[in-house]
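Aim 2 progress update. The chain analyzed this quarter is reproduced below.
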Amino acid sequence: LGMISDDKGDFDKAVDFYTRALSYDKKNPDIYKNLSMTYRHKKDFDKALETAEKSASINPEDTESKILLGNIYFETGKYDEAVAAYRDVLEKSPDNARVLYNMGSALMQKGDEFAAMEYFKKAGAADRIGEVAHKAYSRLGVIYTERKDFAEAEKYLKEAAAIRPGDALNHYNLGIAYLRQKKNAEAMEEL
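Predicted structure tokens:
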């Protein structure tokens, strides 16, 4: 019932259901994890963090709890802690595309663009043709455009556009990369 209430956006009711469930089973990491997600949806990050930490402490092998912890740290601007949580997950699951992407995003926020780019590349390679790859290649295309490395920007933006052909922003960015390389005919097709 907690999950249903959360899905419907009735977060207070979901919290109530999860709290009642905990009164019957205080050592169930899944209840804490779901409660943490509900608090996160409510933007009550202190309680979200507290319950995610509880879930992770009960079941240290559960990567989903650690991913949730990393995401909450990221959303609250605690990028060092986010990186640590993601690194812990990647030690157990090095090809987790979503975590590779999140690690890249956290590193970008910390100002470590070079390391972030490597994680975005790994995320794209791990996912290949899914949403994570699309986001990673889009991000790389923008970074290379900002660095004025338009050939590399073109490479990654073409990958992103191939994954999601209807994404107008990628086509626009690809058109800009073409223009900067004096590939006017290709640019006109994208713009």
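The chain has a mean pLDDT of 95. The radius of gyration is 20 Å. These observations will guide the mutagenesis experiments scheduled for the next reporting period.
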